[in-house]
Amino acid sequence: MNLHQFAETHEVTNQPPSLDGTNLYRIDLPLQEWARRFGAGWAESRIDAYGALAGGPLMEAGFLANQNKPVFTSHDRYGHRLDLVEFHPAYHELMRTAIEHGLTSLPWAHPQSGAHVARAAMTYLHSQAEAGSGCPLTMTFACVPALKLQPDLAEQWLPKVLATEYDPRNVGMAHKAGVTIGMAMTEKQGGTDVRANTTRAYPVGATGPGQAYELVGHKWFCSAPMCDAFLTLAQTEKGLTCFLLPRHRPDDSRNQFYIQRLKNKLGNCSNASSEVEFRGALAWMLGEEGRGVPTIIEMVAMTRFDCMVGSSSLMRQALTQASHHCAHRLVGGRVLSEQPLMQNVLADLALESEAALALSLRMGRALDNLGDPQEAMFSRLVTAVGKYWICKRAPAMINEAAECMGGAGYVEESILPRLYREAPVNSTWEGSGNVQCLDVLRALSKEPGVLDALFAELGDGHGDKRLAAHIANLKSAFRDTDDIQYRARQLTEDIALGLQAKLLLEAGNAVVSDAFIASRLEGAGRVYGTLPRGLDVAAIVARSTPTGF
Ligand SMILES: Cc1cc2nc3c(=O)[nH]c(=O)nc-3n(C[C@H](O)[C@H](O)[C@H](O)COP(=O)(O)OP(=O)(O)OC[C@H]3O[C@@H](n4cnc5c(N)ncnc54)[C@H](O)[C@@H]3O)c2cc1C
Known about the structure:
Order of helices and strands: HHHHEEHHHHHEEEEEEEHEEHHHHHHHHH
Distance between the termini: 40 Å
Bound molecules: flavin-adenine dinucleotide
Number of domains: 3
Number of strands: 11
Number of helices: 19
Helix content: 40-55%
CATH architecture of the largest domain: Up-down Bundle
CATH class of the largest domain: Mainly Alpha
CATH topology of the largest domain: Butyryl-CoA Dehydrogenase, subunit A, domain 3
Radius of gyration: 24 Å
C-alpha cells in the first residue's frame, strides 16, 4: 500500500499568486500618473528603482524589523548607564536604503521643480514596505527648515543631515558623515499644550540664539531616541524656546540625556518611542528666544505633510493586497472582483486611496513652489486639512481592505494587521485630529489671503455642477461664524473633499472623478461599499489592481 496517498491531504487551490518581489511603482498606475502630473517625471527611473526595492528587500526587512522590536538597555552589568536602544539589522537596512536614496534630503540637497513630489513618491513606496522607520526618516527630512533659522548651527549640522549616509554608531556627530534628527516636545502635562512645558534651560555662559544652555526636565514622548540630536523645547526667561540637543557632547562624552523606558505601543513597532529626562543636558538655542513654537512649527509642518503621505501609503498597500486577492479568489464559482457588491467595496476603497494620493502629491507640488504666494498659502492650509482628513480616513479604509481578504486579511503575513495597527498614529502624533481642525480655523482667520487662496484653488466647479454647489455651500459655511469651533471637523472635511474632487476632475479621468463626486459630494452611505448606481466600478477596480499575474 502507498502511504503517501494518505499523507497528501489536499492540493492548494483558489489562492492568489504571490505578490512577493513585485515592483510597487510599476503596479501603481495612479502613482505614476500623479507623480508625472505634479512635475516628478524626471525622477521616474529613481522612483521606479525604489518601487523594486520597496516590493522586494524592504518588504522582507519590514516584516523582520516589526517582529524583532527595539530593545532598551539602561545600564551595563556594572551599573553604568548605557541608554542604549538596539535595533534588528533589518531596521538598519530600511534606514540605510532610504537615506542613501535621498528620502531625507532630496528636495533640500537638489532643489528643483518636482523634487518634493519625487521624494514624497519614494516615501510613499517606502512606507508601504515599512512605516516605523518613517518616523526618524521624516524627522531628519523635516528638521531642515527649522535648522536653517540658526545659520551657525546649520553650517555645522546641515551637511551631515543632508548627507546620503546612514551611520547608526553610538558615537558623537564629529565621527559621522551622516546624522539623524529627532524631536522632543511633548511632556506629561501637555502635548497639544506645549506652552505648559516645564523643562528649563540655563545658560552656560552668554545668552541668546546659538548659545549653549543646559536643560533640566523631561519629555513624555521622544521617538527614535538613538538619533544624533533632537529639536526640543524649554523655558527661558523669555518663554518657550527651541533648542538643538545632541546625544553626545562635542568632547564625545554622552550628553545628560537619559532614556527612562520605551513605550509599549499599539503599532509602529519597529520604531522606538521613549520617555527621556534631561539632567543638565547641553543644547544650543535654535532661533529667537521665546519663539520656540514658531521655530519648531517649521519642522512640524513638514512632519504633518509626511503624515499625509504616510497614511496615503498605508491605504495604497492595503488596496493593493485587497484588489489582488479579490482578482484571483473565487467564491461561489465567481471571481470576487467581478461580483457586484465586492466591486462596490473595492471601487470605493480605490477612490479613497487615489484621492488621498492626489492631495498629498498636490501638497508636494506646493512645497516645490513656495516662492509663489498662492502656493505658500495653499500649503499653510492644506498641511492641516490633509493631515486631518487623510489620516482620519486610513484606519477604517484599511480595516475594510482587510475584510475584503476574509480570514487571510486578519493574519500577520498578509501585512494588513500591521497596516491597521500603524494607521492611527498618523492621526494622533504631530497634532491630533481636533488640533488640525482648529489650525485650519486659525489659518483661515489669522492669515490674510488664505481663504482667498483656498477659493482660488477650488475655482468655480470646473464644469461640474455638483462641485460648484459644494463650493457655494462651503463659502456660506465660512460666512457663518457662529459655533465655528464646534463645526470645525465638518468644515475641514468639506474643504478636503472639495479639493480632492477638484484635483480628480482636473486630472481628466472622468470615471474616477465622477464616482468620487457622486459618492463624496452628493452623499452615499457611511461605510465603504455604498457607491451609488450607474458608475463604472469595474474600470475603477481594474485601475487599482496589480496587473501581470
Ligand atoms: C507613537 C507616538 C510617538 C510620539 N513621538 C513623539 C516625539 O517623538 N516627540 C514628541 O514631542 N511627541 C511625540 N508624540 C506625542 C504626540 O505628538 C502627542 O501625543 C500628541 O501631540 C497629543 O498630545 P497629548 O498626548 O498630550 O494629548 P492632549 O494634548 O492631551 O490631547 C488630547 C486630545 O484632545 C484634543 N484637543 C486638544 N486641544 C483641543 C481643543 N482645544 N479642542 C478640542 N480638542 C482638543 C486633541 O486633538 C487630542 O485628541 C508621540 C506620540 C505617539 C503616540
